[in-house]
Amino acid sequence: xxxxxxxxxxxxxxxxxxxxxxxxxxxxxxxxxxxxxxxxxxxxxxxxxxxxxxxxxxxxxxxxxxxxxxxxxxxxxxxxxxxxxxxxxxxxxxxxxxxxxxxxxxxxxxxxxxxxxxxxxxxxxxxxx
Length: 129
Known about the structure:
Elements (H helix, E strand, L loop, with lengths): L4 E5 L3 H11 L3 E8 L4 E7 L8 E7 L14 E5 L2 H10 L3 E8 L6 E6 L5 E6 L4
């Protein structure tokens, strides 16, 4: 078995796709409209679905926004240069909500950004091998 994808419900699919592809550099892997169900699924990621875990963005046509609830945590993305990654996100209009720095009670360098729907994405600085 392997982890295939994580699904997020988004209020505006075009806005979400712009964030995940232009700001975070993911690729739109596939997109399918389901007119009878009144929803669209879009899959984005850093590699193909056969090889990597991806995000499924679900847009229900009749729902403009969602309550995030208090059980959801975040998506984590490893980066080679967390400072440059945060600056690139900021330069493209993304929202950095926690600047890079050591995590509480540890030494791992992390940062957080927020997507247009309010979902948190954690960047984790890649360790030197």
